[in-house]
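Hey, sorry to bother you again with one of my protein questions. I've been puzzling over a protein and I'd love to understand its fold better. Take your time with it, there's no hurry, and the full record follows here:
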Amino acid sequence: MRLVRSLALLLVCALVLAGCGGGDDGDGAGDATTTVADGEGQESGDDDALAEAAVLQLSDFPPGWTEGEAPDEDDSDEDDTFDACPELQAESEEIEEFETAEAESPQFSRGETTFVDSTVTVWEDEDAAERAFALFERDDVTDCLALAAKEGIEEEAGEALEVGQPVARESSAPDAGDEAIAFQITLPVTAEGTELVFYLDLLAVRGGRAGALLSLVNLGQPFDGALAQQLAETIAERMAA
C-alpha cells in the first residue's frame, strides 16, 4: 500500500491550488494503475482484475467531484506506508512478498482543497491479508503515520511551505469489510505567511484476502464522515465480489 507519496501529493496540490485533482468530468471509471506479482495458489490475472475493479471510480462520488490523472506506474513499485519507522517497514516488506496484485485509483477532488485516492492490494491468502492489516493495529502506528506524513510532505513540498507538528489519533472506523480501522492526522502548515490546518483521514479496510487504503484530505475540517463511510462500503463490496 502507498501512503506517504499519496498524502504528500494530495496536500501539496491543495496548497498550491494547482487543480491537480481536476480533469475528467465524465461519469465513467478512471484508469487505475496496477502492479502484479506472481503468487502461488491464485491466478495473478484474476487478482489483477479484482484489484483494478475495486479501487474508487468517479461514479462513486456525488456530483461536483472531478477526476485527475492516474498515478505514474514508475511510482508504484515501493510500499512507503511505514517508511518513517524501520521496524514496521521491515515487517511490511516481508508481507509484501505475498502480494499478488495492487491497483491505485486516480486522484479525485472537490474544489481545490478536498482530495481522495485509494489503493487496493490482493494477497495470496487471507492469512497474509490479516497480517498486513494487523500492522495498523500496533500501538506505535499513530506516531509512525504522523512522522511519515510530515517527512513525506516536507520532501515533496521543499521550501514551498513550513510543516508544523502533526497530531495523529485513531478515529471512528467505517462499518465495512471483515475489519476496518481509521486514523486522523491533523497537520498545521504555513504557506506564504498563511497558517492552514489540513485533516488527513486514513481508512484501512480488509475483505477476505484483499485490503484497501483510502486517503482523504480536507482543509479546515475533517472529511465528510458520511461520504467516507459510503466510499469504504463501496470498496469493501467490490473486494468481496
About this structure: The first strand starts at residue 33 and ends at 36. Residues 4-240 form a domain with the Protein Transport Mog1p; Chain A fold (CATH 3.40.1000). The CA atoms of residues 186 and 227 lie 19 Å apart.
